[in-house]
Design a protein that fits this description.
The chain is 31% helix and 36% strand. By secondary structure, the chain is an alpha+beta fold. Strands 1-2-3-4-5-6-8-7 form an 8-stranded mixed beta sheet, with helices on both faces. A hairpin with a 4-residue loop joins strand 1 and strand 2. The chain is globular.
Length: 183
């Protein structure tokens, strides 16, 4: 992984390593979409200030420096509209999982599916990992449509897989393998 990760998805979309200079825009995106995002992201309620966003970004940069994670801003025509990340890169087993979110007002433009597809290519062909997982809330149909449209295999259900807003909810687990590229 390079020192400053950037991935051009298309003429409108770029993925860029989240850095300190993104903190204000990142906080504004979260704060203006708080009700929408808190339904599916457990860390939203703990992100109540610019300083907390800077702390998160610093933590994510350390993960990137240690080659165990990658948290990027999704830039649409230069505007920070969401985030896509590789969580818990497991080099021993050559696998990772992808998480993503998008501001509600930017949905419906194909931004997430294009971003996930580009990141999948990077993970499988550049990082030489073998397995990608995506975990989505059972009732999060918009999020679930991404791996389903990209040819991921639905592996099963993690009962009470995540604590969200003081209650557990089920997660659907999807996977994509390097060998699935040829199918």
């Amino acid at each position: 992984m390079s020192d400053l990760f950037t991935l051009k998805v298309d003429n409108e979309i770029d993925l860029q390593l989240l850095q300190a200079h993104h903190a204000n825009d990142f906080f504004h995106l979260i704060d203006s979409n708080r009700k929408h995002l808190r339904e599916w992201l457990p860390w939203i309620d703990q992100t109540q200030s610019h300083a907390q966003c800077r702390y998160l970004i610093d933590m994510w940069q350390k993960m990137y420096t240690n080659h165990i994670g990658l948290n990027t801003a999704i830039l649409f025509n230069g505007q920070l509209v969401g985030s896509i990340s590789l969580h818990q890169i497991d080099w021993m087993n050559r696998q990772t999982n992808i998480g993503y979110f998008l501001g509600e007002q930017f949905q419906g433009n194909g931004i997430v599916i294009k971003s996930v597809k580009a990141l999948m290519q990077y993970v499988l062909l550049e990082l030489h990992l073998n397995r990608i997982e995506i975990k989505c809330g059972l009732n999060n149909n918009k999020s679930r449509s991404i791996p389903e449209r990209l040819g991921f295999t639905k592996e099963g259900l993690m009962r009470d897989g995540e604590l969200l807003n003081n209650r557990y909810h089920d997660l659907v687990v999807y996977s994509f393998l390097l060998s699935d590229l040829n199918k």
